[in-house]
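call fold(seq) -> C-alpha cells
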Amino acid sequence: MPMTVTEKILARVSGNSQVKPGDRVKITPDLAMWYNSVNTEHFFAPLERVGAKKVADPEKRIFFIDHHTPVKSVEYANVLNKVKKMHQDWGVRVVERMGIGHQVMGEMGAVRPGMYITHFDSAIVSMGCLGLLPLPTGELLRYMVEGSGYVTVPATIKVVLNGELPKGVQGRDVWLRILAEAGPSGGRGRILEYMGPGYEGMDMDSRMGMMNTTTYCGAVSAIASPDQKALDWVDAHPGEPYEAVYSDPDAHYDEEWRFDLSGMEPYVAIPPKPYDARPLREVLGTTIHQAYLGSCASGRVEDLRLAAQVLKGQQKHPDVRVNVVPTSNLIMQEAAREGIVTTLVESGVFLSSPSCDYCFGNASPLGDGEVCVSTGTLNITGRMGSTKAQIYTVNAGVVAASAIEGKIADPRDYL
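ret:
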C-alpha cells in the first residue's frame, strides 16, 4: 500500500509494516524533549509525587533551558538548580545557554531525517522540513515514565507551492497567506506536507519559519520529504546515521492546496488572533512603540540578513525600542562573521544573546496601550506584557522597516 512520509515514519515507530489514517497505534518516539518554563517545578511535581526515580530511555530525552535566560531572580535560580539536578539524576541530557531548543535540537545533530520526535510545545514543527515527523503531545509525562504512548494516524494535506518569493517576502509570509485561506480549522487534525518548485526554491531558514506555527490552522504538524537542500543542512550538523524517508508517488492525500508565490506581498497577523492573517498593506502606518526580531519562528540568519539589508545606513526611530535576538549561538556567530551584527548595532538596535524571554514578555515587556511589531510566535492578549498592548506578527524585514519609521512599514521600500 502506498504511504506518505508521515505514514511510513509512524509505521516504523509502531512496529507495523504499514498504517493508514485513522489507525490507533502505540508508538515509541525516537526523541522526546521539553524545556523550562514559568511553572517548571509544578510540571514535574507529579513525577515527584509518584516517587519516580528515573525516566524511560533517558538517552532519548533532552531538557533544554532556554526560557528565563538569563535567570532574573534568586527564587527561580533555586527552582532551576533543583530541576537541573533532577534531570542529571535521571541521566537526561541538559542543554543550556546554546539558544532556543527548537533550533538547537537540529544544530546539535539530535534530530535526523526519518525520526519521530515529540515535545509539549507545537513549535517543534519547524523541524519537519528536515524530513522527520514532529508531533506535539499533551502526554509528555507518559512518554517520560512509560517510554511510549498512543497516537491516531493523521490524514495528510498536500501543499504545493509554485513560483518564487519576491524580495522582502519570506516563508513566514507564505504561511500567513496559507493561514488566511485555511482559517483556524482548515487543517484540523491533519498533517501539512509541503512540496513543489516554490518550496524547493526556499532556503532552510524560510522553510523552518513557515512551518513553525502550523498548528494555528488546526493541523497537528507539518513535514516534507527531504530534498538535497535539507540533507545538506542535516549533514552540516553531524549526528547519528540516518535513513531518509520519502512519500510514495501514488500516496493518498486527503486534500490538495496550491499556492503561487510569485507576486506575493508581506502579510501580518492582526492582534489578538494568531490566525487573523491579512496583507500587510491593510495596517501600514500604524504607530508602534517596540519592534522585536527573534524567537523560534524568526531569528535565523536569513531573518537577520534581511533586517540588516533594510537597516543598513539607517537609524531606528527614537521612540521605538528595538530588540534583536538571534535564535541560537551558532546563528549569532554566523551573523557576526557576515558583518550583520555590526550593521544592526550601528542602526541603534539592542542585540541580545539567544533567549525565549522577549517572545513571552519576560524581557522588555509591553506597557499599557503599546503596540509592537514582532516575529514572535504569538500575538494573543498579554503575550508580551500588558493585556492592554497589541502585537502584530510579521516578517523580519517588516520589523526592521517599522523600526526606522516608527510605524508599520513595508520593507520593500528599502530593498
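The first strand starts at residue 24 and ends at 27.
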